[in-house]
Amino acid sequence: MWPFKKTQLAGPDEFPAVIDALGEKLRTNGFDAEADRLGQILEGLWTTSNELYGELGTALKKIDKQRRGLPVDLAAEVRRLIKSIDRICRWR
After folding, report:
1. What is the mean pLDDT of residues 59-70?
2. Of 13, 12, 21, which Cα lies nearest the Cα of 80?
3. From CA 1, how far away is CA 49, in angstroms rounded?
């Protein structure tokens, strides 16, 4: 699942599913703490969507930098989401 539909961003109801799917893949590969952190971020209360995206971006960047043992496809998905969040936040 990819959070973009051609040039249109996924809606607020769809984006959490993308993060949940990534969390499940992380958990399946033994990265439970990282999956838990993404879940905590989604369950949080945020004043603005920029806060949510900022927290998700920070968590994903931490996963990308600190977890070099990620499978190649999972690492690529993390990087795609980082780029997507960066683009979303630039537009706001």
Report:
1. 91
2. 21
3. 20
